[in-house]
Amino acid sequence: DVFKLTLDTPTYKGTVSCKTGLYINGEWVKPVEGGKIDVMNPAKGQVITTVSHGSEKDVDIAVKAAQKAYKTSWGLQAPGSARGQYLTKLADLLERDLLEFAALETLNTGKPFSVAREDMFASAAILRYYGGWADKIQGKTIETNETKFAYTRHEPYGVIGQIIPWNVPLLMFAMKIGPALATGNTIVMKPSEMTPLTALKFGDLATEAGLPPGVLNIVNGYGQTVGNAIAHHPDIRKIAFTGSTLTGRKIQEASAKSNLKVVSLELGGKSPSIIFDDANLEQTIKWVSLGIFRNMGQVCFAGTRIFVQEGIYDAFIKGFTEAARVLATQTGDPFGEKTAHGSQISKTQFDRVMSYIESGKSAGAKVEIGGERHGNEGYFIKPTIFTNVKPDMKIVREEIFGPVASIIKFKAEEEVIEMANDTSYGLACGVFTENSSRAVRVAHALEAGTAWVNCYTTVEISVPFGGFKESGIGRELGEYALELYTQVKSVHVNI
Ligand code: NAD
Known about the structure:
alpha/beta; 15 helices; globular; Aldehyde_DH_dom
């Protein structure tokens, strides 16, 4: 079955389409068990189409296909250079169809078309980057004594399970499949049941690129069924998960209860941005706004807790509120030419974010700007800034995953480091100061996998990304991601 729609919007005119079945063993199939699931356009609050969702049985079929592909046409059978060429080809094809992919992503997520386009460019760049690594995965030779030596091989795991969320659907998909395929693994991928369209469209690119059947399988479905089956499957040797900390715990439990599969987790956050008196005000406001409002706050590393030193406090609030006011004027139709702020992903998320806003209000925090929905259609929430915030409020302690910033005033460096680290999360942080010694000192003192100094949100493909504390296990991106998808074998040789 095929979904097809013609769009005539200010930023995209043309058709978007994708298959709606499960992509298993290089073919589009109907689920053995399972059924149909509605896919929404959150900007309109309307169903766009229905797609298949699978079951435990479908996961099992996909795992068998992936096992066969691993043994016969991928894994140790396909040289790195060949795997690299497939990834490069996939990047080329994605770039060829980039605008259609971006339009499909916008339709399914409500994010501005300009943002979706950037996500698609980044997705293609990631595939190309890992295509470049595929023939550069090398071990070491270790001399042990005069008659013996040993060498290491970085071998793939075999069949990998990958489960991803809805906030940056195709980008997350590319971040997962790029390094896994480059290192020789085969994949059973579950996109978010809410945002499967671009992942499904990618299935056709895999076929067009000539990727051997079974190397990449895409099984759409719910977390409790398809996700759970992947997490428990005895023939999946490794699982890579991105999503909430709550689900991350379930993935680890499933691994412990099944076959001790290796688990890597990219989870939630409650990241601090710290602004010192000597920060460059204009630049800081630009980065801090992006940090919290980009993608409508639906970003794991969003800078949600903003600590501002007392000397710059008033000027910062004034400028930051102005930035949010401008963004509010650019809110609306995701396909609009000037739109920079779109819809939240779903009614559930909309209600959740609004309930956090209400909890902030009733706890005594002051709404500087926003704090309400935008328009009557879809799930738009205005960029929201809270001041008068106390460190024990719910809006400061829990991940909101929406466009809601909480601002806390501070006096001294030691005090702010303590407050910033007072969270179970440790994904990212931002430090804004013109004093380079302080910048480095504070960046090192904060408990986070990524520290941005005088910038935010700049995720580079070549730089590892991942969480401290309950924000995750393992590092994606860069050369580090190759370690996620390989296991080291030591070969001892007696000459
Ligand atoms: P979620 O945990 O609800 O779902 C993520 C994925 O897991 C989905 O595909 C879902 O179907 C699946 N899932 C749900 N229950 C499952 C189960 N019992 N077993 C197996 N799979 C299951 O998260 P979400 O709401 O889709 O995404 C938002 C969360 O993701 C936020 O907490 C955010 O911080 C996090 N996130 C983290 C990163 C990162 O890189 N650290 C990136 C993006 C999003």
